[in-house]
């Protein structure tokens, strides 16, 4: 997976290995690009928290804003839109004033749930060891 936030496209990103529709179709290349993009999306900085929350049942925007620590409203909006576009979330708008909007995990997102919980559990269990390893590495290599 790439570093950084891959929930939104990066302008100017080198996409030369992904078919654009302008060149000849290469099945292996298209398949690799698609897999990488899917992994980047579901492993993105904000996607995991959103998908875990939405897998518990319908969740509203403000609930997601509270439970996904550090996310801005704009990034939440963009990430929700991308997850909906990828078929991982379903958005339902109720005709009320003000409009009520709920997000629900789709069956393919629910299939991911156990893996995401395992991944976040692993990160929680090992964050202290990783922080200690980073500090030791930085001391050894004189970095700050």
From TrEMBL:
InterPro entries: HTH_HxlR, WH-like_DNA-bd_sf, WH_DNA-bd_sf. It comes from the Bacteria. Pfam families: HxlR (PF01638). Residues 1-23 are annotated as: Disordered. Residues 33-131 form the HTH hxlR-type domain. GO terms for molecular function: DNA binding. Keywords: DNA-binding, Transcription, Transcription regulation. PANTHER family: TRANSCRIPTIONAL REGULATOR, MARR FAMILY, TRANSCRIPTIONAL REGULATORY PROTEIN. This is Transcriptional regulator.
């Amino acid at each position: 997976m790439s570093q950084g936030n891959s929930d939104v496209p990066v302008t100017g990103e080198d996409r030369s290995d992904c078919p654009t529709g302008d060149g000849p179709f290469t099945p292996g290349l298209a398949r690799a690009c698609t897999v990488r993009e899917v992994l980047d999306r579901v492993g993105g900085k904000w996607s995991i928290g959103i998908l875990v929350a939405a897998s518990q049942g319908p969740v509203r925007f403000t609930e997601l804003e509270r439970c996904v620590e550090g996310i801005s409203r704009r990034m939440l909006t963009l990430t929700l839109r991308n997850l909906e576009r990828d078929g991982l979330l379903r958005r339902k708008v109720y005709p009320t004033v003000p409009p009520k909007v709920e997000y629900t995990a789709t069956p393919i997102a629910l299939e991911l749930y156990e893996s995401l919980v395992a991944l976040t559990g692993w990160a929680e269990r090992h964050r202290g060891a990783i922080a200690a390893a980073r500090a030791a590495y930085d001391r050894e290599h004189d970095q700050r």
